[in-house]
Design brief:
The structure holds 2 protein chains of 2 kinds.
Chain A: H1 3-32, H2 47-56, H3 63-75, H4 89-124, H5 129-143, H6 146-160, H7 179-183, H8 186-219, H9 222-230, H10 234-261, H11 266-271, H12 277-286, H13 290-318
Helix pairs in contact in A: 1-13, 4-5, 4-8, 4-10, 4-13, 5-8, 6-8, 8-10, 10-13, 12-13
Chain B: H1 2-26, E1 33-38, H2 44-59, E2 64-69, H3 71-80, E3 86-91, H4 101-105, H5 125-135, H6 140-154, E4 160-166, E5 168-173, E6 177-178, H7 193-196, E7 198-199, E8 205-210, H8 225-234, E9 239-241, E10 247-249, E11 252-259, E12 262-267, H9 281-293, H10 300-303, E13 306-313, E14 316-321, H11 328-335, H12 341-344, E15 366-372, E16 376-381, E17 395-400, H13 404-413, E18 418-419, H14 427-433, E19 437-442, E20 447-452, H15 462-470, H16 474-481, E21 486-488, H17 512-521, E22 525-526, E23 532-533
Parallel strand pairs in B: 1-2, 1-3, 8-17, 8-18
Antiparallel strand pairs in B: 3-20, 4-20, 4-21, 5-19, 6-7, 9-10, 11-12, 12-14, 13-14, 15-16, 16-17, 22-23
Helix pairs in contact in B: 5-6, 15-17
The chains are: A mainly alpha, B alpha+beta.
Chain lengths: 325, 538
């Protein structure tokens, strides 16, 4: 089978998956979450007024018609108006997604840049105390809940030592001409460090342990014996031969992690008051903001599906043994 | 002889015993009661209060099942479906609810339809008559008498048990700002707060912190109190409720009732919008007309009595009401923001404005500067405003956090100067210990209540409701759950609302003996297992 027909097939599968997910999300929210206008009773709105609001949300229509309207709009790229914000959903999601991705990508890059070589090195030092401490540290940070590490970091570096800002993306108020103007500043970097490190420490465990364990497996392979027989140095074997092969599962894990990153880490975003998508999803579900909740989850699903597809393709390049089928 | 004497008597005795046996077995147990409340995560206080109540009710011989419910679902079941036995809910005390109209209305039988504010279904024609009378009584003292009488009337019927009034505990940094105004029901974040705060350091911009983000800043779309708390800083109104909650003329130089249904308002001289355009009577007339014609329900209750609003000259506006309304001049005129006609008359569908297109020009003491969603809202002081000489700050900023933890950390590190709303219970002692922070306990005129569904089995019976009310240990709730920061409940009009509250009403102090006495007097009894039985039929 050729590459292009494989790609086409996978693309169609991806679209089908997204369609199914969108449908599931649509019905899940509308049937599972309470009516968004119920909370308005606390604002003193009477039943007629709340019915007016429901009408403006299109909730007075029968469910199947709401679904058709939703599909019709989604195909055109229109994800509707947020009930809560009364603004187009796309704009809100893009803003938040960008904030989340900066945080997540930074954290993932740090985690993998440290975790991968460190994991490889630990495998070399297998059995020693360094190895054990490395594993313990990796597991420790992975097990520690991020809200705890986050709060500890804020407490120590922010409140007690006063070295770091305790919340937000920038020192408020600030003015910026757009997204890149906002993030390419020292101020932003300073605000990024703590949340990114908290997430990175959490993610560190995965590449660390996967790399270490895969390396150990690879060491047992024949071609490593061959390399040793050839007289290559341990270091060269480690990094040029073994590591390259051990990278494959790490790459898969990386792609999946990036895919899931779109949902943000709700916990970190709340602890650091980072205006990201995770925090927004939480609020959307709380306020029964169906269009925003649907679209947010759909974006996450799209990320995961796309990245999975990319990984599969990447794999064929990385590992010549794997072909298209 | 035996047959003629003993047999009939024996037969009669047998008949009597069997009849009474039938009567006793016909007495059923009072059905199981479901007490709905919030989840512990949403509000541990309401959650615990329900369990305290259930415990006492079980001692009266009832079978009670507490149902912690997700909040929106709870409200839906209570208001929209009226599918409940007894529910623990709360009303927040907002400035516009100081007027007794709103809370008295929660017992008006006309508001007991599905979705209305009287889901318990209390129906007392005498009460309804008093309610109508007070809503049309212009003489405040006469109206107060009617309001007091209404409270006297409904309380012995115990349709709703007011559990407590909960203080709002807020905090501010006393080293950065002084003269922080505290207002009942509003805490520190009132419309007056920023106008009275005095900077103590070089930073002259007051920073408020809170986890509450407005839904939007569109005066024709926002249905959130947090949107309005912000917008009322840069939009102005004809009348304002002073820090002592009395109506004072603000944009209006004079407000006169020409007759029962006509009110004439003369604007102050020299009013201007933030873009320099003057504020005229046309803007006022336009605003009221615009709100009436647009599909925006937030102000419907205030606009209901308005028939027409006409500008008779540059600074004079006449309001023609369809029926007399005592609340109009005091409440409605203090809530409707005056919009610039020259901007809004161009906008046909204000509810569909994109966020970046929402006009932000008002005529208030502060000017809109910016809004970064999820991060910060900022205003600067309008030095052309007639009140600006009294304003010491140069601007106000609201920092939006994800939760109260962030807010409190911000307060501790000096990133913000005050909290927008109540602190978490665990944060109060921390704030108390911090010399840089001042903690304020603000009494509320909203209240937490247990409402009975009078349509269900024993709940329709006054004696039953009274007994259940006697069995509520409210002192314990205030002391243990609120840590003493609150007051035991009495009437729907809170004591802090001193003018309208009737302090002489029946109190229902916690008394299990009185509860049992009520039940006995009502014909209830207990079976062998101590379970309460419904009164005998007939």
């Amino acid at each position: 089978m050729s590459r292009s027909s494989y790609l086409l097939r996978r693309a169609i599968q991806a679209l089908a998956a997204l369609f199914v997910i969108a449908t599931l999300l649509f019905f899940l929210f509308r049937l599972g979450l309470p009516d968004p206008t119920t909370a308005l009773v606390a604002e003193g709105l009477n039943p007629e007024q709340r019915e007016m609001v429901r009408r403006s949300f299109g909730l007075d229509q029968p469910l199947w018609r709401q679904y058709l309207i939703f599909l019709q709009n989604a195909v055109q790229g229109d994800f509707g108006f947020s009930f809560h914000y009364r603004a187009p959903v796309a704009g809100i999601i893009w803003e938040r997604l960008a904030n989340t991705m900066v945080l997540m990508v930074t954290a993932i890059v740090i985690a993998y840049l440290i975790g991968v070589p460190l994991g490889a090195w630990l495998s070399w030092r297998r059995g020693t105390r360094t190895d054990t401490s490395g594993i313990i540290l990796g597991l420790m940070f992975r097990s520690a809940p991020m809200f705890w590490t986050g709060m500890m970091a804020i407490l120590v570096f922010g409140v007690f030592l006063g070295l770091m800002p305790t919340s937000g993306m920038r020192t408020l108020p600030y003015s910026a001409d757009g997204f890149f103007d906002k993030i390419f500043t020292v101020d932003f970097l300073v605000h990024l460090i703590m949340p990114a490190l908290v997430v990175a420490l959490y993610y560190l465990g995965s590449p660390l342990l996967i790399m270490r364990n895969t390396m150990l497996e690879v060491y047992g392979e024949d071609f490593i014996e061959m390399a040793r027989a050839k007289g290559l140095s341990e270091r060269r074997i480690l990094y040029n031969h073994a590591a390259r092969n051990a990278l494959l599962p790490v790459v898969t894990q990386l792609a999946v992690t990036i895919g899931l990153a779109a949902g943000g880490q709700v916990v970190v975003e709340v602890v650091f008051s980072w205006p990201g998508l995770g925090r927004e999803i939480l609020q959307a579900v709380r306020t029964s903001d169906f269009p925003l909740a649907q679209a947010s989850f759909l974006v996450m699903a799209a990320f995961v599906i796309t990245l999975n597809l990319l990984v599969d393709i990447l794999y064929t390049t990385l590992d010549p043994r794997v072909g298209f089928k | 002889m035996i047959v003629r004497y003993i047999a009939p008597r024996a037969a009669l005795a047998f008949l009597m015993v069997s009849v009474s046996a039938v009567a006793i077995s016909a007495q059923e147990r009072v059905p199981e009661i479901y007490l709905d409340t919030t989840t512990e995560a949403y509000d541990p206080i309401r959650y615990e209060a329900a369990y305290i109540i259930a415990e006492a009710w079980e001692q009266l011989g009832l079978s009670v099942s507490v149902r912690p419910t997700e909040f929106s679902t709870l409200l839906g079941r209570f208001y929209d479906e009226q599918d409940f036995d007894a529910t623990v809910v709360g009303w927040s005390g907002r400035v516009d609810r100081l007027d007794p109209q709103f809370f008295l209305g929660t017992l008006d039988s006309r508001q007991s339809d599905l979705g209305g504010n009287n889901p318990g279904g209390y129906s007392n024609p005498d009460y309804d008559a008093l309610y109508d009378a007070q809503s049309q009584e212009f003489d405040v003292d006469a109206r107060a008498d009617l309001v007091h009488a209404a409270q006297d009337l409904y309380i012995p019927d115990a349709p709703v048990a007011i559990l407590f009034y909960r203080d709002e505990v807020v905090s501010y940094n006393n080293t950065t700002f002084d003269d922080m105004l505290v207002m009942a029901g509003e805490g520190l974040y009132s419309e007056w707060g920023p106008m009275q705060a005095t900077p103590l350091t070089d930073r002259t911009i007051l920073r408020i912190g809170g986890p509450q983000e407005p839904d939007n800043v569109n005066p024709l779309a926002s249905t959130s109190v947090w949107g309005w708390k912000w917008m009322r800083l840069y939009y102005d109104r004809l009348v304002r409720l002073s820090p002592d909650v009395e109506p004072i003329n603000w944009m209006a130089e004079s407000v006169e009732a020409i007759d029962e249904t006509t009110i004439e308002v003369v604007l102050r001289e020299g009013l201007a919008f933030h873009d320099g355009e003057p504020v005229t009577a046309e803007d006022v007339a336009f605003t009221f007309g615009y709100y009436a014609e647009q599909d925006y329900s937030y102000f419907d209750a205030y606009l209901a009595p308005v028939e027409s609003v006409v500008a008779t000259d540059e600074r004079t506006v006449v309001f023609n009401l369809s029926e007399p309304s005592a609340v109009f001049a005091t409440v409605a005129l203090s809530q409707i923001p005056i919009l610039p006609a020259h901007i809004w008359s161009e906008i046909d569908n204000p509810g569909e404005l994109a966020p970046e297109d929402i006009p932000v020009i008002g005529s208030g003491p502060f000017v809109f500067e910016g809004y970064n969603r999820g991060e910060i809202k900022s205003l600067s002081t309008n030095r052309n405003h007639f009140h600006s000489d009294e304003i010491a700050v140069d601007g106000v900023e609201f920092i939006i956090y994800a939760d109260m933890e962030g807010v409190f950390t911000g307060l501790q590190t000096g990133a913000i100067d005050m909290t927008a709303w109540r602190m978490e219970v665990g944060q109060i002692p921390l704030a108390d210990d911090d010399p840089a922070l001042t903690v304020v306990s603000v009494p509320d005129f909203g209240y937490y209540h247990t409402t009975f569904n009078t349509r269900r089995h024993a709940f329709g019976d006054v004696a039953f409701r009274r007994a259940l009310t006697y069995a509520m240990d409210r002192e314990r709730m205030v002391n243990v759950l609120l840590d003493g920061r609150g007051e035991v409940g009495s009437s729907v009009i809170a004591p802090v609302n001193a003018f309208w509250n009737n302090p002489f009403v029946e109190m229902f102090d916690f008394d299990m003996d009185a509860a049992r006495a009520e039940l006995e007097a009502g014909g209830y009894s207990w079976d062998d297992e101590g379970r309460l039985l419904m009164p005998a039929e007939g």
